[in-house]
UniProtKB/TrEMBL annotation:
<keyword id="KW-1133">Transmembrane helix</keyword>
<dbReference type="Pfam" id="PF01425">
    <property type="entry name" value="Amidase"/>
</dbReference>
<protein>
    <submittedName>
        <fullName>Amidase family protein</fullName>
    </submittedName>
</protein>
<feature type="transmembrane region" description="Helical">
    <location>
        <begin position="59"/>
        <end position="78"/>
    </location>
</feature>
<keyword id="KW-0472">Membrane</keyword>
<dbReference type="InterPro" id="IPR023631">
    <property type="entry name" value="Amidase_dom"/>
</dbReference>
<dbReference type="InterPro" id="IPR036928">
    <property type="entry name" value="AS_sf"/>
</dbReference>
<feature type="domain" description="Amidase">
    <location>
        <begin position="8"/>
        <end position="95"/>
    </location>
</feature>
<keyword id="KW-0812">Transmembrane</keyword>
Amino acid sequence: MQRASTLRSDWYRAAHDLFDRYDAFVLPTAQCWPFPIDWDWPKQIGGVQMDTYHRWMEIVIPVSLIGLPCVAVPMAGARPMGLQIAGRRGDDLGVLQLGEAWHKATS
């Protein structure tokens, strides 16, 4: 439990420092492209075994874990994928404005 708390605190400090230089950061909403409908989940991504259904989309955990505001938007392009736009803690409005700007720029 202590190790998890330390890791979370380290991630929080790193994100806080990131926002000294940037207004937001953008990550994918999953670690892989959409997979065939008959798969329960991708069993391997980049040589790493996915032991449960949730592993293939765990990229969303760090942002939620430290309570950052975040919005998911569609990625522009031929393949269906989403992007998550995360902002400084408490800047919910700024994140929503970035999401709206992205929507207008890519629609």
